[in-house]
């Protein structure tokens, strides 16, 4: 709904224009004034969006009125009326950014055309203003949450700039997270759609640094409505952490942290879609970390004590113990497992093993999983895979015959189209295991070793036979003579032809 002020010293004209506008735009508020001074007073009180004014009026004419309005922060869109087809008026009006210049008697179609153009522009500007303000608020609110050095005066100043008033009856912070299908801006928009329009002025919403939707509201009754609406879509998994009530906006970071802490417990209790901080705030990390059990598992990997490994893991991940402690206890247990078992294990094996165990990065953070149950099963599976890998590595180390067999196969078949997969299949070893062990055994990767064998044989043929270079190229496994020449020069420093000439 927009407000329109009509200014004209002729009563019939201003009332006639008012009647036309009211019939065409029944939801708009219209006001009338007899001259420029009355118009200034009305503008001060009503803050109209559009002002239609005559030029010639007593006390304060239309041009003087426009000049006065240009000095104000909020300026209405301007339309000039005049009974004088005088270019000087139009020229002066243009200087003050008047939207249109209409002659009396006012043509209904021209008036409505002008008003429609202005309304479209106003709506576009309002939309941009709201969008920019939302973006500005989101950036400033995240700044408050992330900056540890802000004092109370700084925070009050920022809220004032964001045009956010105080909450005399207190406020809550809610953090809403969801499944991968609906996150970030999409989730924020979904929540706006689900909450009824009458609640729009009762909450602030923005995305935090992790892309979760944060709600600041004094009306905690938003929560049951939101929960009901979100729960209607059974495929949509969501969780909400709710802070305690706070009184002062300078406490925003503290209550945000409360909501974030509450949200973490959804990991342990996935069926509880909404978790209140007041229900979990008393928990502390009361148990000492099971470092000795974690060390035992690390030492047992690759042995025949698989049952004991699983038994110790069950003790470490005892849900009864975990649920009695603060969520930080499980976070620290996971950190200890990563440091003691995973990182040290992979440091010994090298980069080749990372290709086989891509779960390493995922295991570093428990919240990469939806809940404790998923995390536990992934952890157990990951440990067993490492366990089996370690056992096979030990077997390879202890039985040199595997490598001897691989070397013999390469030296007998270097002239064929050989690759790592062919050789690993021949000796019945996993591709990644064989790649790592081959490098450990020979000191070279497979490609470089094969090049060495082929060029070694090429040198013999160049010295002891009269075969042409392109024939020797094919005899040692290079179908392309140019590739053969390049590899030969790479290893020997000279071309095959130059090498033969030096024999």
UniProtKB/TrEMBL annotation:
PANTHER family: HISTIDINE KINASE-RELATED, TRANSCRIPTIONAL REGULATORY PROTEIN HPTR. The keyword Cytoplasm applies. Keywords: Cytoplasm, DNA-binding, Phosphoprotein, Transcription, Transcription regulation, Two-component regulatory system. Gene3D superfamilies: 3.40.50.2300, Homeodomain-like. The keyword Ubl conjugation does not apply. This is Response regulator. It comes from the Bacteria. The modification 4-aspartylphosphate is found at residue 54. PROSITE patterns: HTH_ARAC_FAMILY_1, HTH_ARAC_FAMILY_2, RESPONSE_REGULATORY. Residues 404-502 form the HTH araC/xylS-type domain. Its main location: cytoplasm. Residues 3-119 form the Response regulatory domain. The lineage of its organism: Bacteria, Bacillati, Bacillota, Bacilli, Bacillales. It is found in: Cytoplasm.
């Amino acid at each position: 709904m927009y407000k329109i002020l009509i200014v004209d010293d002729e009563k019939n004209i201003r009332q006639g224009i008012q009647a036309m506008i009211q019939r065409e735009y029944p939801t708009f508020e219209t006001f009338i004034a007899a001259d420029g001074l009355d118009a200034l007073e009305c503008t001060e009180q009503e803050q109209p969006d559009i002002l239609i004014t005559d030029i010639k009026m007593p006390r304060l004419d239309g041009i003087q009125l426009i000049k006065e309005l240009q000095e104000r922060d909020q300026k209405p869109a301007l339309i000039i009326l005049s009974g004088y087809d005088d270019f000087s008026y139009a020229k002066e009006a243009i200087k003050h950014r008047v939207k249109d210049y209409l002659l009396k008697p006012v043509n209904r179609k021209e008036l409505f055309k002008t008003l429609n153009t202005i309304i479209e522009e106003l709506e576009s500007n309002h939309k941009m203003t709201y969008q920019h303000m939302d973006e500005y608020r989101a950036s400033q609110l995240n700044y408050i949450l992330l900056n540890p050095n802000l004092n109370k005066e700084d925070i009050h100043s920022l809220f004032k700039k964001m045009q956010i008033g105080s909450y005399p009856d207190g406020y809550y912070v809610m953090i809403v997270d969801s499944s991968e299908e609906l996150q970030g801006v999409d989730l924020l928009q979904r929540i706006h759609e689900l909450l009824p329009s009458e609640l729009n002025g009762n909450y602030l919403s923005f995305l935090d640094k992790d892309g979760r939707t944060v709600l600041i509201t004094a009306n905690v009754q938003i929560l049951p409505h939101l929960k009901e609406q979100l729960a209607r879509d059974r495929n949509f998994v969501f969780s909400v952490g709710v802070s305690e009530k706070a009184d002062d906006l300078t406490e925003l970071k503290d209550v945000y942290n409360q909501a974030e802490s509450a949200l973490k417990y959804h990991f342990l209790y996935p069926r509880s879609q909404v978790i209140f901080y007041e229900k979990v705030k008393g928990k502390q990390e009361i148990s000492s970390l099971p470092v000795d059990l974690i060390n035992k598992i690390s030492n047992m990997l690759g042995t025949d004590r698989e049952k004991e490994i699983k038994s110790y893991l069950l003790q470490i991940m005892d849900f009864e113990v975990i649920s009695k402690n603060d969520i930080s206890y499980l976070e620290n247990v996971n950190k200890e497992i990563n440091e003691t078992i995973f990182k040290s294990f992979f440091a010994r094996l090298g980069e080749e093993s990372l290709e086989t165990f891509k779960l390493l990065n995922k295991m570093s953070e428990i919240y990469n999983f939806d809940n404790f149950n998923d995390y536990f099963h992934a952890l157990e599976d990951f440990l067993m895979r490492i366990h089996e890998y370690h056992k096979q590595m030990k077997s390879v180390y202890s039985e040199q015959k595997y490598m001897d067999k691989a070397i013999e196969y390469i030296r007998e078949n270097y002239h064929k189209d050989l690759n790592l997969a062919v050789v690993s299949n021949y000796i019945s070893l996993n591709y990644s295991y064989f790649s790592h062990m081959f490098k450990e055994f020979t000191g070279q990767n497979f490609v470089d070793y094969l090049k060495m064998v082929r060029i070694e044989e090429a040198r013999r043929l160049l010295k002891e036979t009269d075969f042409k270079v392109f024939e020797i190229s094919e005899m040692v496994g290079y179908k392309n003579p140019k590739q053969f020449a390049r590899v030969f020069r790479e290893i020997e420093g000279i071309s095959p032809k130059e090498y033969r000439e030096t024999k």
